[in-house]
Design a protein that fits this description.
Helix content is 34%, strand content 20%. The chain has 441 residues and is α+β, with helices and mostly antiparallel strands. A hairpin with a 2-residue loop joins strand 11 and strand 12.
Length: 441
């Protein structure tokens, strides 16, 4: 299938600290998304196979885009792509409220669509990209699966395990005890600290928490700068943190329980080397260190010890939001071996199991719902429950799944990839679908 690409102003790759891969099966997966990029994408999807009038195109596209790609070039591509449908949604990756990528599956071919919009109303489309997607070849065994992961990134940590007596029993693994960057998978530890605070009576799920302007962070669908939400319950914030990886919600919760509480939660949840994440960074702090104006990574790394780094964060970064307009994102790996959140595949297995144990307590009843709303991928055969958390930024890709299968057998899958030389295709995480199938065979 020859699908041309469309670029108005070039699409900018925004690091997805809150990476989300959503299993679809229906276009409703896009309907559930919030934000201006999602709204414009829904309009684009509605015009596939038909095109639009010039006046309608001017209502949705920036003038610079239409100058580069006028209606007589744009409409034939919309018609051509639509002819490959009908489509189901396979994956959705929000890159903040102003950028979004989806992968659609058709009867013969797939297509990846990326869209970027202006940050200010009326949020006209500045970038649109269509790319054909070849049908993925399933791995017949774990050796083929690992080989595919090694093609995606030079550094691979992988764990496929059965859960027996509350522990992961390895079926196949590659360096499962090697710590790599996590992206947003670190949010499991914030959730663990919140759960502990609820157990101790310091928080309740119903407690309302304000969201300050200086806490706003990019890639925040429900509580970020592009929304009107300026308060939420602890449960709503936790749900947003895990389900759509809302960075603002994450940082509000982290500040609410305290940095030291999240650091303590790491050890309590089975992390083998929690000192690697001390001081425990917020998404706002990590963003400002790497992509702030100016970036402060070098100064932060030059601090002599954890105490000095804590003072640096408090003195230099306090009170500064990290919205899209506050930072200059780059599409290249940026200090991913030094400024990130780190854990091993084995650590993430223990973290998921610790949260699953906590979810059995009546006072923590919302935990199962919070962890299970976004499965990350469409698994077959249909699981009874999936707890998922993943994340990414340029050069970092992570996914972790605790899955209860159709016969209540529990399995754990963790994929951690790192590439210091460039970005990693998020399609690599679909290896987890094969791992699940192989674990159940």
């Amino acid at each position: 299938m020859a699908i041309a690409f469309l670029l108005g102003t070039a699409l900018v790759a925004i690091p997805v600290i809150g990476g989300r891969a959503v299993g679809g099966g229906e276009l409703a997966a896009v309907e559930r998304l919030d934000g201006p990029a999602a709204s414009q994408l829904r309009w684009v999807l509605s015009r596939l196979g038909e095109g639009a009038s010039e006046s309608e195109l001017r209502q949705h596209f920036a003038a610079a885009f239409l100058e580069a790609v006028p209606a007589d070039k744009l409409n034939p591509i919309l018609v051509q792509v639509g002819a490959e449908g009908p489509f189901d949604v396979e994956t959705v990756e929000p890159n903040g409220p102003t950028a979004l990528s989806v992968t659609l599956k058709g009867p013969r071919h797939g297509v990846a669509i990326s869209i970027a919009v202006e940050p200010e109303p009326p949020h006209l489309i500045t970038g649109l990209f269509f790319k054909p997607v070849e049908r993925r070849v399933q791995s017949a065994n774990f050796d083929e699966l690992v080989a595919a992961l090694r093609k995606a990134a030079p550094e691979v940590t992988f764990l496929a395990a059965d859960v027996v007596d509350g522990q992961c029993r390895t079926v196949h693994a590659v360096d499962p005890d090697k710590a790599l960057a996590l992206g947003s998978a670190f949010k499991l530890y914030v959730l663990g600290a919140v759960a502990q605070a609820v157990i101790q009576g310091d928080l309740t799920w119903e407690q309302m928490v304000p969201v300050r302007d200086d806490q706003l962070v990019h890639t925040s669908q429900r509580f970020g700068a592009q929304t009107t939400r300026r308060q939420g319950s602890v449960e709503e914030l936790a749900q947003a943190m895990i389900e759509v990886s809302d960075n603002t919600a994450t940082d509000v919760l982290l500040e609410l329980v305290g940095r030291h509480a999240v650091e303590a939660a790491q050890a309590r949840m089975g992390m083998s080397a929690p000192a690697a994440n001390v001081p425990f960074l917020s998404t706002r702090e990590m963003t400002l260190l790497k992509w702030g104006r100016p970036p402060l990574a070098a100064e932060f790394l030059a601090q002599g010890d954890a105490a000095a780094r804590r003072r640096f964060l408090d003195e230099r970064l306090s009170g500064r939001p990290a919205r899209e307009q506050d930072v200059d994102f780059t599409p290249h790996p940026n200090h991913i071996e030094a400024i990130e959140w780190f854990a091993s595949a084995s650590d993430l297995c223990r973290a998921h199991l610790a949260l699953a144990d906590l979810a059995r307590r009546p006072v923590l009843a919302p935990l199962a719902q919070i962890l299970g709303t976004n499965p990350g991928l469409p698994f077959e055969p249909q699981p009874k429950h999936v707890s998922f958390k993943g994340g990414s930024e340029p050069g970092v890709l992570a996914g972790s799944w605790l899955i209860a299968g159709p016969d209540d057998e529990r399995v754990m899958i963790v994929i951690l990839l790192r590439n210091t030389a460039g970005a990693i295709d998020t399609e690599a995480l679909r290896a987890a679908e094969d791992a699940y199938r192989l674990l159940l065979d």
